Amino acid sequence: RIRAVRDSPDAFRPTLEEEIAHDDGWWEDIVRRTVEHPRGTLLVAEAGIEPVGMLLARSDPDESRAEVGAMWVDSAARGLGVGGAMLDAAIAWAHDRGVGTMTLWVTDGNGAAERLYADRGFTPTGATGLLRDGSDLTISQLGRDIGTPRDAGH
User: Which pLDDT value is given to residue 37?
Assistant: First the structure.
């Protein structure tokens, strides 16, 4: 995550200074809780043994909606299909769980990410905000239908 924030500081709410302030035990706990989360998935893309991408997705308790967060592709791996493959896997994960809608946030002006999300059917929901307190950067929420939730009509 520190590598992701260092590489793409305008894609994450926490700053690099905030992220490097955490010790190894804190990071180990975050990874463990993320991996063990009953309604979540953590995807890591690798080139050889090097991580070149990550994506976290979690569903709401009723599994009607899932949100993608902390998506990142290493600058050296951009344009190679890594982001699309991770996003496709997250969409498939949500569909298999019966999730109806998936949302995510994108920093406005991040053209490559905006194109990737649009190519995968994500459209603006109308929700917007600031990337972080004190920032001039704005973010927009995007969403898409995943399919019919498994309990629809029952």
Answer: 86
Confidence (pLDDT) at 151? 44
Which residues are CB-neighbours of 154 under 8 A, at least 6 positions away? none
Contact at 8 Å (CB) between 132 and 15?
A: yes
DSSP the chain: -HHHHHH-GGG-SS-HHHHHTS-HHHHHHHHHHHHH-TTEEEEEEEETTEEEEEEEEEE-TTSSEEEEEEEEE-GGGTTTTHHHHHHHHHHHHHHHTT--EEEEEEETT-HHHHHHHHHTT-EEEEEEEESSTT---EEEEEEEE----TTTT-
Residues of the chain with pLDDT under 70: 1-16, 18, 20, 27, 148-154
Residue 147: its pLDDT value, please?
78
